[in-house]
Amino acid sequence: MRNILLISTGGTIASVKTSQGLAPQIGPDDLLGYVPAHREFCRVDTLPLLNLDSTNMQPHHWLQIVGAIREHYQRYDGFVVCHGTDTMAYTAAALSYLIQKSPKPIVVTGAQKPIDLDVTDARTNLLDSLRYASSSRSHGVVIVFDGKVILGTRARKERTKSYNAFSSINYPYLATIQDGRITRFFTVPVPDGGPVFYNQLSCRVGLFKLIPGMGPQLLLAMADSCDAIIIESFGVGGLPADPGCDFTAALTQLTGRGKTVVMTTQVPYEGSDMAVYQVGHLAKRQLGLLESYDMTLEATVTKLMWILGQTCDPARIQALYHAPVGLDTLYAET
Ligand SMILES: NC(=O)C[C@H](N)C(=O)O
User: Fold this and answer.
1) 56 in the Ramachandran plot: left (φ > 0), alpha (ψ -120 to 50) or beta?
2) Is the bond preceding 195 in cis, omega lying within 30 degrees of 0?
3) What is the pLDDT of residues 70-122, one digit of tens each?
4) Where does the Asparaginase/glutaminase C-terminal domain start and stop, copy by copy (predicted)?
5) Residue 33: phi, psi to the nearest 5?
6) Is 114 in the pocket of ligand 1 (CB under 6 A)?
7) Contact 227, 260 (CB under 8 A)
8) To test ligand 1's pocket by mutation, which of 54, 83, 112 has the most ligand atoms within 8 angstroms of CB?
9) How many degrees, rounded to 5, is the angle at CA 149 between CA 145 and CA 150?
10) Does residue 54 have a known ligand-binding role?
11) Torsion of CA 253, 258, 260, 263, to 10 degrees
């Protein structure tokens, strides 16, 4: 029988109704009490780590989760982290950078409805997660939700209310879980030499979402508090150069100040490719912008936080950014 550590951090799964709306109050022992069938395939210990609506989840909380997994890594075969859905994709991506090459599974899960309701997705999600974490064929950071297994670097919350809240972006689902049966579509090889833990992040990463008519002033204002700025542009990625809102001078200024600037897209699927159009080509070739290609925004943000936690050397930042981690990108730029 496999030994699993269940770590609770709050979220709807652990919430109860209060006069001010849902608030997380159910601890991990009680969560486990709702899924007695887990006893057929695993032994579970519990760790009440945090009690947050995931809107309040901060990078220092990610480091706390990593610290807990690191401390108990040798003692358990797998880990299940119960988490709110709102920022779950960020946490799963952050854990994928902070715990690399893990031969043991680290499953992040949650629910759209509290576990104490009669009609809820919480019990299925928790039981599926324990089952996936109990398999010797599982490893690395994943989200298990609504019967799907999604790579930690590829998840995005796409629905605010439905049970099928999460999608895998620009990458197939690893597996489905239905009626207790895991169907694996392919096996991601376990990298040698793991696990590798990291314990530093930088919060000096910002996001600038472009809308028509917006000038570069706000972007420039971000420079004081950010070492890396992600520009969420249109289509495959480009920068306006209209005389009324020309971004060229602002970008030259930012990169001249040593800022890392990454282009990503507002379009949900298929990613960026700045070389396609003149509006992107110039920014990439002349202004030295990086781009996210097929990476999710969540992965781009947390990868930059992880990189800036280690170095401020531009060449090293670029090299780390372009090196795929946890299959976060299928593009390798040299
Ligand atoms: N479904 C949920 O878990 C939403 C909740 N607000 C959270 O992210 O903590």
Assistant:
1) alpha
2) yes
3) 999 999 999 999 999 999 999 999 999 999 999 999 999 999 999 999 999 99
4) 204-320
5) -60, -25
6) no
7) yes
8) 54
9) 100
10) yes
11) 20
Ligand 1 near 91 CB (within 6 A): no
Q: Strands, E, within 155-282: which ranges?
A: 155-157, 166-168, 175-178, 181-184, 196-197, 205-209, 228-233, 260-265
**Strand-pair partners of 42:** 2
What is the pTM (predicted TM-score) of this model?
0.97
CB-CB contact of 109 with 82 (8 Å): yes
Tell me the backbone φ, ψ of residue 60, rounded to 5 degrees. -70, -25
Whether 328 and 89 have beta carbons less than 8 Å apart is answered as no
- DSSP state string for 145-156: ETTEEEETTSEE
Sheet holding 205-209, edge to edge: 205-209, 228-233, 260-265, 290-291
Q: What is the pLDDT of residues 164-218, one digit of tens each?
A: 999 999 999 999 999 999 999 988 888 889 899 999 999 999 999 999 999 999 9
C-alpha distances in angstroms, 242 versus 90, 290, 332? 34, 22, 32
- Determine which one of 9, 18, 55, 85 is catalytic: 85
Q: How many residues does the chain have?
A: 334
Question: Are the CB atoms for 260 and 311 separated by under 8 Å?
Answer: no
Q: How confident is the model at residue 219 (pLDDT cuts 50, 70, 90)?
A: very high
- CA distances to 213, 221, 233, 313 from 249, in Å: 17, 14, 17, 23
- Expressed in angstroms and rounded, the spacing between residue 62 Cα and the centre of ligand 1 is 16
Say yes or no: CB of residue 110 within 6 Å of ligand 1.
yes
Residue 272 annotated in ligand binding: no
Tell me if 233 is assigned to a ligand binding site.
Answer: no
273 CA to middle of ligand 1, Å?
A: 33
| DSSP-assigned beta bridge partners for residue 43 | 3
Are 89 and 302 spatial neighbours (Cβ–Cβ below 8 Å)?
no
